[in-house]
Design goal:
Distance between the termini of chain A: 51 Å
Structural class of chain B: alpha/beta
Strand order of the largest sheet of chain B: 7-8-9-3-10-11
Shape of chain B: globular
Number of helices of chain B: 9
Low-confidence stretches of chain B: none
Largest sheet of chain A: none
Shape of chain A: flat
CATH topology of chain A: MetI-like fold
Mean pLDDT of chain B: 94
Radius of gyration of chain B: 18 Å
CATH superfamily of chain A: MetI-like
CATH architecture of chain A: Orthogonal Bundle
Number of helices of chain A: 8
Oligomer: heterodimer
Largest interface: A-B, 19 and 26 residues
Order of helices and strands of chain B: EEEHEEEHEHHHEHEHEEHH
Largest sheet of chain B: 6 strands, mixed
Number of strands of chain A: 0
Low-confidence stretches of chain A: none
Chain lengths: 218, 250
């Protein structure tokens, strides 16, 4: 084992790491707002929207992420008539599947956060004259975030590891390069390096979420 | 002079249970009304109907000459919001915003609703906290305050909106007995300043000392009302006698 071999394995894997982080960032950035919208639909009073949102959560949580991933990349393009509008490159397909899947989980986490807020908070804002939007932004969401943070943190770490699934639709992320190196050299070392990279990302996330939780400790 | 609050024939049901069975009363400017009665008699529901936290079914509610509800029908939401804006409310469980410090708790509504200027607002917050004896707590989080302090902050928060009428829903019921005094003193001070108030309470001594009128509620109706001396020393109704008797034994 020498430094050259280590670099030989590591450098392509770092390239894969950029892809992994791309999927991760896109998923966090888009699935959290989408999840919150789904929460509002589920909690809202408009019956059809509520039904749609509940069905969405049921399907996306109730089927394997791997299946959803394959469906978006391989399945959508061969749908009759509309399939031609759903042809995505590998990375885009991966991001779409992850955003849709994680939004369903975040929606349920946020719903739990909203349910934990005392009815008295809404009554206080009402008698003080705040409208619904002001109540949401200034009173409800900050309290929801505090309650949701530990679960969001948990989900985020799961997401880092789930990104390894996209190797099955041929996206060249960390695991893809690890597998290639192991097969080529008949040497497990590349798996170890990959594990280290995942642990490093999750170490950073753990620290960030600890800080966030502290800033929301009231 | 128009009464501050006028209620006619107010009825309210929760499902099949009728909680208010025809309530009539008036509150004039500067009145301090104590509402007493056993648990489940409808005191809190009555108070909550006045500020639209509960929707009543039948009757009229008139606040400073404007109908909140007329013949069981409410006005447009904007109208309702304007009318209940004349009142402030203090809750049994304080309902402070736990994620905001004392200053932000007080500033939130004036900033959002009245668009008050920042500098004037801070001055006002300081004054208001001084009034309730908590000037030194301006930067504290609610979780670090005692129950009595929380309730005094809640009163200050309600006063920030300059209400013409303040409603208190059992303001001391969630407090340790030794902390009720500090809250009652603040309410007493407001009464001395001629604030119009309605206080649902189990503090009989306080009701007697501070109120200029007492309503005794039982089973969804006002059974007896009048001057505190009359109610406490010479109650006419047997239910009132019985209720007060139970209290005096405690």
């Amino acid at each position: 084992m020498n430094v050259n071999y280590f670099l030989n394995v590591l450098i392509p894997m770092l390239k894969g790491g950029i892809i992994t982080l791309t999927v991760f960032t896109a998923t966090i950035g888009l699935s959290i707002p989408l999840g919150f919208v789904v929460t509002l639909m589920v909690m809202g009073k408009v019956k059809p929207l509520k039904a749609v949102a509940e069905f969405y959560i049921y399907v996306l949580r109730g089927t394997p992420l791997l299946l959803q991933l394959m469906f978006v990349y391989y399945g959508l393009p061969i749908l009759p008539v509309i399939g031609q509008y759903f042809v995505f490159d590998r990375l885009t397909a991966a991001c779409i599947a992850f955003v849709l899947n994680y939004a369903a989980y975040f929606a349920e986490i946020f719903r739990g956060g909203l349910l934990s807020i005392d009815k008295g908070q809404y009554e206080a804002t009402k008698v003080l004259g705040l409208n619904r939007f002001q109540t949401m932004i200034k009173v409800v969401i900050p309290q929801m975030i505090r309650v949701s943070l530990p679960s969001v943190s948990n989900e985020t770490i799961t997401l880092v590891k789930d990104t390894a699934l996209i190797t099955v639709i041929g996206v060249t992320e960390i695991l893809h390069y690890a597998k290639t190196a192991v097969n080529r050299d008949a040497n497990n070392f590349a798996f170890l390096v990959a594990a280290m990279l995942y642990l490093l990302i999750n170490f950073v996330l753990t620290v960030v979420f600890k800080k966030l939780e502290k800033s929301y400790d009231f | 002079m128009t009464p501050m609050i006028k209620v006619n024939n107010l009825h309210k049901k929760f499902g099949d249970v009728e909680v208010l069975k025809g309530i009539d009363f008036e509150v004039n400017k500067g009145d301090v009304i104590a509402v007493i009665g056993s648990s489940g008699s409808g005191k809190s529901t009555l108070l909550r109907c006045l500020i639209d936290l509960e929707t009543a079914d039948v009757g009229d509610i008139v606040i400073e000459g404007q109908y909140l509800m007329k013949n069981g029908t409410y006005g447009a939401p904007a109208e309702v919001r304007k009318i209940i804006g004349k009142m402030g409310m203090v809750f049994q469980h304080f309902n402070l915003f736990p994620h905001l410090n004392v200053r932000d708790n007080l500033e939130l509504a004036p900033k959002m609703v009245k668009k008050s200027k920042k500098m004037q607002l801070l001055k006002r917050v300081e004054e208001q906290l001084k009034e309730v004896g908590l000037a030194d707590k301006i930067d504290c989080m609610p979780s670090t305050l005692s129950g009595g302090e929380k309730q005094r902050v809640a009163i200050a928060r309600a006063l920030m909106m300059d209400p013409d009428i303040l409603l208190f829903d059992e303001p001391t019921s969630a407090l340790d007995p030794e902390l009720t005094g500090e809250v009652l003193n603040v309410i007493q001070k407001l009464a001395n300043n001629k604030m119009t108030m309605m206080v649902v309470t189990h503090e009989m001594a306080f009701a007697r000392k501070v109120a200029n009128k007492v309503l005794f509620m039982s089973d969804g109706v006002i059974l007896e009302e009048g001057l505190p001396e009359k109610i406490f020393e010479n109650p006419q109704n047997n239910r009132t006698k019985e209720f007060l008797c139970n209290y005096m034994q405690d």
